[in-house]
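Lab notebook, bench 4. Still working through the backlog of constructs that have no structural model yet. Next entry is a single chain of 284 residues. Request: give me the structure tokens for it.
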Amino acid sequence: MSTLTVTHNGESVTVLTTVKISSLESFFNVSKVFGLKLNNGLSIDLRDNDLDRTLLTDKEATLLFNRPSPLAFLYLIKSYYQRIETINFDSIHWITNSLYNPQEKSAEFKGISVKTQDYNDKIISLIVIVNRNGQYTILALPRNDVPLLYYFQNNNNTENLKVISGMAHPLHLAHGNVSTDGKIGLLQSNWRINAINSAYMDNNNKKIFGSRIGGFFTYRWDSNYGVDSLGNLCSAECCGCGITDTVYEPMTSGKKSFGVRQAHDNNSLPGGGQITDEVHIYGL
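Model written out:
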């Protein structure tokens, strides 16, 4: 018999290549599965009646969930005055019902920013964050009855996010494989909404170090840099989506749509401590 091994959230099962979606959902106690991502990088849609199941033989795979709705593609925004800005932490696009290129919903990475109406009003329970290399993380939101916009209109309060699948820490998604360097510490909770150090916040939110969706790590400095609104440890090194640093001068690269920020424009992290890149955010 032809079989494959499917893994989700650290749990594995060996199944026949004729496996049905309902069987996978039942075993892993999940919903909205549509296919598999094979260890050779191929994505398989199990809903396809004409699928050549021999492609699955002796493969290892992870679950793919229903094609999500595009919420935001984060890169650079060119304003009417041709001034370049990023969708960093203090961008109005996180906290208002604005739109930006809402008609652009292609999964192709085009080097443009997008914010759709679904970001403002689609009720979701999961977000999927994908980088240009096809790496991703699927995160469970704290609630299943509000749109993503809600969390950023909530006085910058931190919310912990649960990793369902994919990259366990935002540094892995924004930077790559850094686990081989023993000096790098990944602060818990790994993924957070409004991952900002409350020690530096003032009444006007002018002193900010952190990200809208992301977390903190340690390399050049330790974790003795205050906490967020939930009491999670923070540091002077952050990563993720919507980054702003208005605390630690100099700040040449203190605002990013997606990437890595070490304070003081420090660049000691192997592979780069001032990374700026493109990312897509989807909702389910």
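Notes after review: The longest strand covers residues 209-218. Residues 76-85 have pLDDT under 50 and may be disordered. Flag for follow-up if needed.
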